[in-house]
Specification:
The complex is a heterotrimer of chains A (about 220), B (about 220) and C (about 270). Chain A has 9 helices and no strands. With about 220 residues, chain A is mainly α. In chain A, helix 3 crosses helix 5 (about 85-110) and helix 4 (about 65-80) crosses helix 5 (about 85-110). Chain B has about 220 residues and is mainly alpha-helical. In chain B, about 80% of the residues lie in helices and about 0% in strands. Chain B is built from 9 helices and no strands. In chain B, helix 2 (about 10-40) packs antiparallel against helix 8 (about 165-180) and helix 5 (about 85-110) packs across helix 7 (about 125-155). The longest helix of chain B has about 30 residues, at about 10-40. Chain B is flat and about 70 Å long. Chain C is α/β, with parallel strands linked by helices. Chain C has a 6-stranded mixed sheet with strand order 6-7-8-3-9-10, with helices on both faces. The relative contact order of chain C is 0.15. In chain C, a hairpin with a 2-residue loop joins strand 1 and strand 2 (about 30-40). Classes of the chains: A mainly alpha (about 220), B mainly alpha (about 220), C alpha/beta (about 270). Chains in contact: A-B, B-C. At the A-B interface, helix 4, helix 7, helix 8 and helix 9 of A face helix 3, helix 4, helix 8 and helix 9 of B.
């Protein structure tokens, strides 16, 4: 086993890692914005809005991310508006993130006891304010750990941009493997880099979750 | 849409392989997951440590990289798999870690009083595990297990990267032959959605059967 | 103390439970402090005291659900926790009823009752089921044989739990606040079963706040506070004339509450 090629290709692996992180961060931010809008739309909007949004969310959650990336990349090209791999990956990851995050937001809102909503409404506060100003803040202790957890998933999911040829970490690593004929060492190193990115975040989720549980902000479900 | 209808057989074969892969990986993963979950409660520290490490490594690395490791990396060590074999092995190993965590969560959710009652009755550990702990764990985790299966169905699409002719790959081959990109990709997406919706409904039904009387 | 009590067959007049200088720590917290207690065969003992006094912990040391930090518990001649004595043997002699019933929710009432007799005592299914039906008859629930616990009221669940413990034919029954989780109108049916059990001669250790029950049934009442036995005596004497200040403080509070709720009492 020759580990020296790792050193020789360190810069390439670094670039790949940077692309991976950039994809994940941007998709996370965009997805959070979209997800929040969708979640609020479903909670506050009427039946029609809920049905349309539910269909959209179920569509995204019911098909593989890999397929969604291909749909956007190949589809855009087919309809005459070609997108490069990076924008296509970004769009695909953001839409996917939006759907999953909207479920996280919705779940968090649902976890806040119904009594809170009823108390707010009984005081005469408008529904939108009750959700935004009373329920959502109380949902944060449930939502935040879940969001961090999702971000970890997003970091891993960027590897699927491989199929678009985008030079994120996995594609970069594969190229190196093909050139150096040492797939074992390279894939191990790739795995190691992803692990180094994700594992600390996994620990963070546990710490945050435990901290919030202890703080009494998370109400025990009866 | 004619291209889709003309090639239903192609889609069907791809779907069949997808489901076969998902089923194998889920069954294998469940066995691995159960063994791992039990290992975490083992008296020997190295066994516990191994189980924890396995779970953490798998859950913090992407499935595609795991697949590459199995398909491309292991041959360096003399272990060769066919693309299909590698896909199933990688997904099984991947599943195992997630199932182990699901089981762990279920075990923690069992009220301590149940263990007290079993102990007070003098039930040996093995009997308590089989009669009291695992049945209740199963009833608690079957929704999560069902979801895990559906995720595996979706994850099987990475097989296209190594050439396994599951649903995504057959669709892409068709697309490259006929250039009917939009129709084929839309159909592909809808087939996945239909399959996951049906599977979810089926598993909810089975779940209710499991919960009868108990809830 | 008869040395035979710890080896070979104990003499019938020997205490069935011996607690010898038991101390128990939960981390830095001392929950039991050099407790010494002996329980005679057929005796009905009620343990009372403020929460945190260690009553439940003491009970749980008798069947080994809690390990003692120092001291010794001897049940029917067997030392609890002794490497030579499997806990299962001790637990076969000691039945326990819990505050939260702890019935197995995924099993029917019948299955709850037959599980341990079949798996631990080796009874055949027909034998175990016969025994189960007999016991259900005894606790007044023969028709609930095929029901799941979730369909039963709290009082019914607790009575089934008592039957389940009795199915092991124990020599001693431990009751850990058996009615504390029950709605008030369901308490009576459980206490009636316990009264009957006492009348039939079962050795009972009961942790409870039910004063009327203690007065009717207990041979001895023991007051615990902060891990120590503070006072003991016949219920009539303890409730009317507690001698130690800590027992007095606890009982005054307790009796004042139960006085208010005793039916038929003239309003002040």
């Amino acid at each position: 086993m020759d580990w020296s090629i790792v050193g020789a290709n360190a810069t390439l692996l670094l670039w790949g890692t940077e692309t991976t992180i950039a994809l994940a961060v941007v998709a996370f931010v965009a997805g959070s914005a979209v997800g929040l809008l969708v979640a609020l739309g479903r909670v506050l909007g009427g039946r029609d809005v809920e049905l349309i949004l539910k269909a959209a969310v179920d569509l995204v959650r019911g098909s593989p991310l890999l397929v969604q990336l291909l749909v956007i990349y190949l589809g855009a090209s087919a309809v005459g508006l070609p997108l490069g791999p990076f924008p296509a990956a970004l769009l695909g990851l953001s839409v996917n993130a939006g759907a999953y995050l909207s479920e996280i937001f919705r779940g968090g809102i649902a976890s806040v006891s119904k009594g809170q909503t009823e108390a707010g409404l009984a005081l005469g506060l408008p529904r939108a304010y009750v959700v935004w100003g009373l329920v959502l803040p109380q949902a944060l202790p449930v939502i935040v750990p879940a969001m961090i957890g999702f971000f970890i998933g997003l970091l891993k999911d960027t590897s699927l941009a491989y199929v678009l040829g985008l030079l994120e970490l996995t594609r970069m690593g594969k190229n190196i493997m093909d050139r150096t004929f040492q797939p074992f060492e390279i894939s191990l190193v790739m795995a190691g880099i992803y692990f180094a990115l994700c594992f600390p975040l996994s620990l963070l989720v546990r710490v945050v979750d435990a901290r919030l549980r202890r703080s009494g902000l998370v109400q025990a479900r009866l | 849409m004619a291209v889709v209808l003309d090639n239903l057989g192609v889609f069907a074969s791809g779907l069949a392989l997808t489901l076969l892969v998902a089923l194998s990986a889920s069954l294998g993963g469940s066995v691995v997951g159960l063994l791992t979950a039990l290992s975490r409660m083992a008296p020997a520290a190295p066994v516990r440590w191994l189980a924890v490490t396995y779970v953490e490594v798998i859950r913090n690395t992407p499935g595609l990289v795991q697949l590459f490791l199995v398909y491309l990396g292991l041959p360096n060590l003399g272990i060769r798999f066919s693309p299909l074999g590698a896909l199933i092995v990688a997904l099984t190993v991947n599943n195992g870690a997630y199932v182990a965590e699901i089981i762990r969560g279920g075990l923690q959710a069992i009220p301590k009083g149940q263990l007290d009652a079993a102990a007070a009755l003098g039930l040996p550990r093995r009997v308590a595990l089989a009669e009291v702990v695992l049945p209740q764990t199963l009833r608690a985790i079957h929704p999560a297990l069902a979801n895990q299966f559906i995720q595996t169905v979706l994850a099987s699409s990475i097989g296209t990267v190594v050439g396994v002719e599951e649903l995504t790959q057959v669709a892409l081959i068709l697309e490259s032959r006929t250039y009917q990109t939009v129709e084929i990709l839309v159909a592909l997406t809808l087939i996945y959605v239909a399959v996951t919706v049906l599977l979810a409904a089926l598993m909810r039904r089975l779940g209710h059967r499991l919960d009868r009387g108990y809830r | 103390m008869n040395p035979d009590a710890v080896s070979g067959a104990p003499a019938p007049s020997d205490p069935i439970v011996l607690i010898q200088g038991v101390t128990k720590f939960f981390g830095p917290l001392k929950v039991l402090d050099e407790v010494v207690l002996s329980v005679a065969r057929g005796e009905r003992l009620v343990l009372i005291g403020p929460s945190g006094s260690g009553k439940s912990t003491l009970l749980r040391c008798v069947n080994g659900l809690e390990e003692v930090s120092s001291g010794r518990v001897v049940v029917d001649g067997m030392v609890v926790g002794d490497p030579g004595t499997p806990l299962a043997k001790v637990r076969a002699e000691v039945g326990m009823v819990f505050q939260h019933f702890n019935l197995f929710p995924h099993k029917t009432v019948l299955a709850n009752l037959t599980l341990a007799p079949m798996r631990v005592l080796g009874l055949a299914r027909s034998e175990a089921e016969g025994l189960a039906r007999e016991l259900l008859e005894r606790v007044g629930l023969p028709e609930k044989v095929g029901e799941y616990p979730a369909r039963l009221s709290g009082g019914q669940q607790q009575r089934v739990a008592i039957a389940r413990a009795l199915a092991m034919r124990p020599k001693i029954m431990l009751f850990d606040e058996p009615t504390s989780s029950l709605d008030p109108e369901l308490v009576g049916e459980v206490l009636d079963v316990m009264r009957q059990l006492a009348e039939d001669g079962m050795t009972m250790l009961v942790v409870t706040h039910e004063m009327a029950f203690a007065e009717d049934v207990a041979d001895r009442v023991i007051v615990m506070d902060r891990g120590a036995l503070v006072e003991e005596g016949p219920p009539q004497r303890i409730f009317t004339d507690p001698r130690t200040p800590r027992a007095r403080a606890f009982l005054t509070r307790l009796l004042a509450r139960s006085e208010r709720h005793r039916p038929g009492r003239e309003p002040a």
